[in-house]
UniProtKB/TrEMBL annotation, chains A, B:
Pfam family, one: Aminotran_3
GO CC list: mitochondrion
Cofactor(s) recorded in Swiss-Prot or TrEMBL: pyridoxal 5'-phosphate
Enzyme Commission (EC) number: 2.6.1.19, 2.6.1.22
Entry annotated with the keyword Cytoplasm: no
Xref: SUPFAM superfamilies: PLP-dependent transferases
Protein name in the entry: 4-aminobutyrate aminotransferase, mitochondrial
NCBIfam families associated with the record: GABAtrns_euk (TIGR00699)
Amino acid sequence: EYDAPSMKTPVPGPKSKELTRQLGDIQNVGAVNFFCNYEESRGNYLVDADGNRMLDLYTQISSVPIGVSFPSLFSQTAFVNRPALGILPPENFPEKLIESLLSVAPAGMTRVQTMACGSCSNENAFKAMFIWYKVIGNPHSHPGSTNMHSVLTVLLKGPGCPDLSILSFMGGFHGRTMGKCCLATTHSKVIHKLDIPSFDWPIAPFPKLQYPLEQFVRENAQEEARCLEEVEDLIVKWRQKGKPVAGIIVEPIQAEGGDNHASHDFFIKLRNIARKHGCAFHVDEVQTGGGTTGKFWAHEHWGTGDPADIVSFSKKMLTGGYYFKDELQPDKGYRIFNTWMGDPSKNVFLSEVLNVIRRENLLEEVTRSGKALLQGLYELQAQYPHLLSRARGLGTFCAIDARDDVTRDNLILKTRDKGVLLGGCGEMSIRFRPSLVFKEYHAHQFLNIFNDVLAEY
Amino acid sequence: EYDAPSMKTPVPGPKSKELTRQLGDIQNVGAVNFFCNYEESRGNYLVDADGNRMLDLYTQISSVPIGVSFPSLFSQTAFVNRPALGILPPENFPEKLIESLLSVAPAGMTRVQTMACGSCSNENAFKAMFIWYKVIGNPHSHPGSTNMHSVLTVLLKGPGCPDLSILSFMGGFHGRTMGKCCLATTHSKVIHKLDIPSFDWPIAPFPKLQYPLEQFVRENAQEEARCLEEVEDLIVKWRQKGKPVAGIIVEPIQAEGGDNHASHDFFIKLRNIARKHGCAFHVDEVQTGGGTTGKFWAHEHWGTGDPADIVSFSKKMLTGGYYFKDELQPDKGYRIFNTWMGDPSKNVFLSEVLNVIRRENLLEEVTRSGKALLQGLYELQAQYPHLLSRARGLGTFCAIDARDDVTRDNLILKTRDKGVLLGGCGEMSIRFRPSLVFKEYHAHQFLNIFNDVLAEY
Ligand code: FES
């Protein structure tokens, strides 16, 4: 450890200021104090990007147990020292974001906010949409101190907590937390609650399509039109109720809900409806993102240059978070905030993962093995129509329905006993979620084993 | 990578079954499929604890990007492979839990559930209390399929979503997520919403004490009695309203709210009130836990053998989560669930951190340096009464108030420019949150510098 503080510049020094400017292009930096050099930091002494060495009595909002870089912990500082990213990011953080997350940013998005899991990613994306809708989207409604105060006193009911809503779809899955419970027991900082509405939100029907999509184009188009009409009705109805829809959230493929697909046309029209009514459009790629559909993001299949205002991710991306357009940058620090705000050690892995994906052309591989898998599923459902139906998929993100839930569960178990691990979703679907190194021959390996199971059944 | 599946036993095999039994003593295992040997797993092949090698088309609910143990990722598999702990835990997981988290379990608690952050820890603890109150605490109210269905159709309003509440305190802080938003947009699985109430919860006043506590014993006891009376009134009122209080949540020291202390007597009486009214008692140690008060948990200072039913943690513990009594074990898998359920790589660090704490007697050190710090703060506030007041603390978890918020912010900045990093909390408090390797001489180092700042002010 060092033996005393040692200061070279005022804090933040020129290097921290420059890094703050750089990071400010990527995300809100309202809460950043200065940047740190964790490699040089030791024990009680935090060294900043300008070489200032400070005795640290704050320790990442009290989250460092035994000082920085404790010798008997590992040498890789990214793993040992988990910073409070919102206030004291490591100095290579902008660079790491650029080489990892931003290198795969969706079309039209230049900013990204890291988070720790899919749930907090979506929740904070909702907050960002509310803030945008209320403060940034509408210049006449800046939160005055009266509003701020009212949040604390009337708890989610006064003018500081606008009646806003998010439109979602039946069968959608956007996180398991119930946090408003947490929020309801949190009374210490007015800023955490401002612009967060109470709950009375519209839910639209998601199209129930027939598969394969190419064979039922007309029927499916009718079903999609019905759902889109309902979406517009709900937006109007909620506006009349005084709870306007600030954002629409949708998955490119409803995953937990049973692998429900919709046409590219459906999503493009939905995006246009959002634009027309002044709602933010939030695409939840927590499960579909990261290459599994054969494109890095499932929404790339839609072929539009302006797919969304917010795209959230987690899972395969190793870190949670969301990309967002410039307009959705919150106006103040601490409005989108928690202790860790993600985990930079995950970015190290993500960079390497992205390198491998590029070097080994894994997206092409996924497209190829996904085709083999889906083709095989088509053949099996033709061969065993009493057991299987509705094979569907994009890349290796495939699913097929069993006759009923009992058959589905049995097929999964029997296939597992022969050495292939499958998952269920929806009421009677089997879902396929291999990783990106799943090759054509793995698909055939599975199809052979599955064929045996079906033949014996 | 391997070239084919290879099966030795049915799945789960005997070893997985035995491990499931072991883990079942620690937490709910209703969702666990089998245990994995991640060291032996490669690419598309997952090897289980019984040596069965399976082609993996599920990949931790789709969260593994480029297969298991990709060679160019690091060799430490705990860091490279983040499992979906709720369904496919690594085989050393029970052992790791026992040697890390359970080795410091609070009195009376033998179970622990890991989570990724403080917010999801508290949220899931709330869920556990609701489930306990509704299903386990009351044998007459098992969730039938009608109830299950009603959750989905009436969305948080029918009998499946009981009107329950959690009592919390003004100034309390238990998480920043707003998740009910997430929940409100989640319609795919009925089990996620069952027993989760809508929001109308009682908030009690937290005692506003005078410091030092020893000098104002009588005045403080009166104030505490007033608050406890209010707590009982609220419990009765909410029961009459038909929204009984399932649990009470409290921090041993209100941290974000401004470092508000209460006497041991207050907490013991509060715990008794909870017991008397059949409410679960949830102590939130997210900020106070991990040794910073001189005991591993702040509630140990109360000196009672039955401090709580649930204790949540995060921050210094490196992983989030909560300890709980046997009775609060949920009745079904997937009721408390998300993809990752924490991160076992954090347990590796935690074990090492606990070793260091024991080996180097860090709790005694904290007590010693905390005394020096608080004594120094008392002296400074006597010397600069126009600037400082209300010094208070337990271990190194100390705080002092400045004259006003502007002075507070200025003092923090000026002290930082001289090389000491401090944090603010509440309206005009400075809080001290050093890590556990903060020694007496670090306290003196800070006090000297702070003295200079105050003298110049
Ligand atoms: S809510 Fe996302 S990590 Fe806790």
